[in-house]
Amino acid sequence: KSTTTGHLIYQCGGIDKRTIEKFEKEAAELGKGSFKYAWVLDKLKAERERGITIDIALWKFETPRYYVTVIDAPGHRDFIKNM
C-alpha cells in the first residue's frame, strides 16, 4: 500500500523527482531499491529497514484541480494498534 500510494503521490506531482532519486539511492544502500516510493510515507528507520508500515503517515499535496490528503496506515496486525 505504501509503495502504490507513494508512486501515486509522485505521479500527481506531490513530490519532486530529486527526492524520489534520493530515496532510491538510500533504499538501494539497504538492499531495498524497489521501496523508493514507500519511503515517501514510511519515515521511521524501523519501517525502512523492515519494509513495513509501523505508524500512520499523512501527506498533503495539490494538483491543478484538487487538494489531496493521503493517510497511510499499518496493515500488519501487530501495528494496527498504532492507528
TrEMBL record:
<dbReference type="InterPro" id="IPR027417">
    <property type="entry name" value="P-loop_NTPase"/>
</dbReference>
<dbReference type="InterPro" id="IPR050100">
    <property type="entry name" value="TRAFAC_GTPase_members"/>
</dbReference>
<keyword id="KW-0342">GTP-binding</keyword>
<protein>
    <submittedName>
        <fullName>Translation elongation factor 1-alpha</fullName>
    </submittedName>
</protein>
<feature type="domain" description="Tr-type G">
    <location>
        <begin position="1"/>
        <end position="83"/>
    </location>
</feature>
<keyword id="KW-0648">Protein biosynthesis</keyword>
<dbReference type="InterPro" id="IPR031157">
    <property type="entry name" value="G_TR_CS"/>
</dbReference>
<dbReference type="GO" id="GO:0003924">
    <property type="term" value="F:GTPase activity"/>
</dbReference>
<keyword id="KW-0547">Nucleotide-binding</keyword>
<dbReference type="GO" id="GO:0005525">
    <property type="term" value="F:GTP binding"/>
</dbReference>
<dbReference type="InterPro" id="IPR000795">
    <property type="entry name" value="T_Tr_GTP-bd_dom"/>
</dbReference>
<keyword id="KW-0251">Elongation factor</keyword>
<dbReference type="GO" id="GO:0003746">
    <property type="term" value="F:translation elongation factor activity"/>
</dbReference>
<dbReference type="Pfam" id="PF00009">
    <property type="entry name" value="GTP_EFTU"/>
</dbReference>
